[in-house]
Predict the 3D structure of the following.
Amino acid sequence: MRKVRPLSLIGLGVVVWIILFTGCSGSNSTTVTLAPASGQTLSPGQTVTITATVANDKSNQGVTWSLSGPGSLSNKTTSSVVYTAPLPNAVTATTTATITATSIASTTATATESITVNSVLTITTASLTAGTIGVPYDVFVSATGAPAPFTWAVISGSLPPGLTFMTTPAGISAEITGTPAALGTSAFTVQVTDTAGNSVTQPLSITINPPPPLSVGTLALPNGTVGIGYTAALQAKSGVPPYTWSVPPGTLPTGLGLASNGVISGTPTATGTFPFTVQVVDSSTPPQMATANLSITIGSGVTDDLRLNGNYAFSVRGFDPNGLFVAAGSFTADGGGHISGGLLDTNNTVGVTTGLSFTGTYGIDPTGLGTLTINLTGGGSRTFALSMLANGNANIIEFDDSTGSGTRNSGVVLKQDITAFSTASITGNYAFGFLGIDSGQNRFGMVGDLHADGSGILSSGVLDSDDAISGPFSSVGFTGTYSVATNGRGVATITTLQGTTNYVFYVVDKTQLLTIETDAFGGAGVPLVSGSILQQSGPFNNGSLNAASVFEVSGLASGPIAESQVGLFTGDGSGNLILTSDQNAGGTPASLCSGVAGTCPPGPGTYNVAANGRVTLTDSGFQNSQPVMYLLSGNRAFIIGTDAAVSFGFMTPQFGVSTTSLSGTYAGGSIAPAEPNVSNVVSIAVAGSNNLNVTSDISSTSGLSTTQVSGATSVAADGRVVVTGVLTEILYMVSPEQFFSLASDSTARVDIFQQ
């Protein structure tokens, strides 16, 4: 879905006017006057305070403020407001913003003032990354503040030998590319000129370093199982690619082989632990060579594969070496370790792939943990770790990044109802929550609702969005279309005033769709998002929030610092709320709360529920801002912040909770990470006798690992659980069958566990 920005309102010139709607004539009519006088002109980022005087305002109620156009309003009172012009990278031409003051006593009395925001041609690239001799180099120098195309040139100095400087076809940026041929630092000055002849310059430099010594980056390899397909990729560190890999003959487990590109694959036929020495040679002159001692353990094949049986849809979100990565798809599991009929769609910052087919294998051990490998028809594979729920659904993480420098993500695998594989089955009101990045790779999220008519038309769409740079936008209308194929894969388009965006979704059942955006990343105003669409059951009013719900929200503060909050939201059905919660901001207590060692200050606050389920809050106690909610049913909602950290999450009703609720076996999975350093985890937790034992498969910046930890538990009557010992976390019980977990480390990870 296209991120909503008011860029289409950009205009040229300065026009200041006052329109007075008094509703009557004579000396007693209400009029509004704005100051300072007309004719304000600002540069990007500048501010101006505007005051309003209301004549014949007998109750001295003052005015309300609204903005049409770029920029933002802050410090609103009934008599003044501060307007802030947008930052330079948001202004590509001189534009106009209009501020409107409306009398509270007489809403027909208004005054408007138009402010001109000048554009400023600016080279936004302040420094360039270092290169390595003999390794291809490719970076861009960008500018903003004027309409493209630009003309670029190097006006002094020189690039490192082997590199060239050229204007890109669209003229928005210049590209420095090539293969460095000499060591050292080269200084030069670039100049950009817009179509009006304005020019600015920027001094830059590039340092070319020698390559570090070649080494084997893979520290450990995942275990395998007899009779189940195995795939793992070896990684090299430093040196000059491409690399050539080899092992002494006969040292790998029987049934496995090593390709020269470093991929170990095959189907093991014997149990045991098999040590071997791997060798890698790079392409430098002369070539470098490195070795490492590794081993693979092959298990006996005791599995519980029937736990994954039938048609499934899945989705994941996380990060690859280029930035955000999202994927969704479907497959059929035969209950015996084999996957067929797979479909996969992916999107990241460098390209979109749609409709890929795959087969695969999987194995689920008796504890409920397992692995799943998909083999794409056109080549390539991905391996995932699973934790199985009792209902046949699963939590999932990608589990093939052995060095911590590849692709890591978290998501779900959900059983499908094949009778819902039609356009007609998707009918009624739905709410959605999507999270990702904007076109500048800043955190971005949106939630909203819509109506599907069962014939392919989406109507009555309304959404709220939040962007780390441009801030929130509220109650934006949209329409769209959709269709569902007989295999359960659907496509949709969403249209706002700013244009149309495209999506793929996979039907879980008629109430739930797993969705990713399929527009190519990088277009102006086009975000990259994924999420869920869930059916609503309204209508809604303040009585829709009448009990306790457990919520989780996560955000990304400047730093970047991952921050998360988990707790209880309790509405009284009449517009009043109490929030009790715990927050972790990068592993340390945040200003709002005392961290995972204690609770955040409770409200009280207030809420207001619109008929479509949109909820606005005041004094709520949520981290960073007063978020907006979109209800799915009573006490169940998507949550979007109005803050630069772009807090985003979900809440669900709490029921049946007591001090004995935490008992039994739970399958857990981490929510999608807020930034690449957040670990992706699937777990099996066993609770009982005031103790919690957790076995986890973890993919992190350190590679792949499996851990077993435990902690003592203390459960309060409201369902808040303190876990102490080796395992230190805060849990909130949703029910005896489900809880949310807030980690205490610097990643501020949130996991959701369910029986």
About this structure: The chain has no helices and 57 strands.
